[in-house]
Amino acid sequence: MITLFRTSDAARFLGISNNYLKNLRESHGGFLIEGEDYFLGVSVTDSIRWDVEKIRKKMSDQGRIIREGRRLAKEIAAEG
Fold it and tell me: How many domains does the chain have?
């Protein structure tokens, strides 16, 4: 079962700010996908609902990718 949280609760559970969470949306240059990681409400004033567990996993994956990329860049620079 998927448990969805309002922005303020999701941000608190993830340990990030509301604005940072919103900026992680694909529509704002991030990697969170509407309809998978978060869901918009029926009206403009409805809260966005967030799948915290899925987002936590994606944040971890992104961090791993960044660290691996940095490691490879250092390795390539040391060879050259």
Answer: 1
